[in-house]
Amino acid sequence: MSKLFPNISITGDLGSGKSTISSIIARKLNFQFFSIGEIQRQLAIKYNMTILEFNNYIKTHPEIDIELDNTLTDLGNTKKCIIFDSRMAWHFVPNSFKICLIVDLDIAAERIINAKRGMVETYSNKNEAKEKLIERRKIEKDRYLRAYNKDITLDTNYDLIIDTSFSSPEQISNIIISTLTDWHNNKYINNFWLAPKRLYPTLNTIRNLDSQLIDNLSVSISKEGLNKNPIIVFRLDQDYFIYDGHHRTAASILNNLGLIPISLLKNKTVSNITLEEFVKGNVSLSLIYDWEKVCKFKYIKYPEYVV
């Protein structure tokens, strides 16, 4: 195949579906597929370790990372069309289209338990899976920060961030290919897509929602989507809150949209106060319950710090 597109690097949260989505894209674009994660799982089996034990082992055996990284660099310099499923391919294949997949932690834990990946990844229950996922992510973040002075959690590393929590791998791969095409042709792209059911409301507009406006927006969104009108959002810990765009978010949920474009506020303050202070003063569980009634759905969880 002639190289119509650049190489693609995919990284992201554990349990976000990186391998599955990479495989679909590779098939649709006729790319080769290279998975560092699968290589690491095979090495864990070889050393008779769990994947968490192997991640800890690599901390004191940097030669393993070096060998894997050199492989990424060498493959990235070939004329082959490759999609890399790798934590650090965005760094070692700098000319690639860089994608980060994110997922809600509870959903990730359920996926990993159901995946049944053998003895290298076994969990007795969902809470244990969540704890191990958090621990693995911390180990990986610390390892790459120490080895390369690169923080894998920074949004600015990536050309596209996309939430896989409530969308199928097929839907995700279609958005990725469409966005890649526009990016390659120097067209405008939305670089952050989030499930609207992960967005929590804030107080400043929820009591004044206009049902007629929501209905009108629902008609518009069902025809045209929200491609050029992203929701303004801020993030606190791993929770996302609507700062501007409650009507559009409500219409998106009522239209069963799995993903909508967002624009993430970069500042640590809004309205001249910290994000923590803003949430404490403007978000409550009763507000969230009202939002669920308006949008006719239930969150899978509520922020632990909201009362």
Describe this structure in words.
The structure is a single chain. By secondary structure, the protein is α/β, with parallel strands linked by helices. The protein has helices at residues 18-29, 36-46, 51-59, 62-76, 89-92, 105-115, 126-148, 169-184, 203-206, 211-224, 246-254, 275-282, 285-295, and strands at 8-12, 32-35, 82-85, 97-102, 160-163, 192-194, 199-200, 231-236, 239-244, 260-264, 269-270, 273-274. The chain has two domains: 8-184, P-loop containing nucleotide triphosphate hydrolases (Rossmann fold, 3-Layer(aba) Sandwich), CATH 3.40.50.300; 192-295, Conserved hypothetical protein from pyrococcus furiosus pfu- 392566-001, ParB domain, CATH 3.90.1530.10. It has 13 helices and twelve strands. The strands form two sheets. Strands 2-3-1-4-5-6-10-8-9-7 form a ten-stranded mixed beta sheet, with helices on both faces. Strands 11-12 form a two-stranded antiparallel sheet. β8 (231-236) and β9 form a beta hairpin.
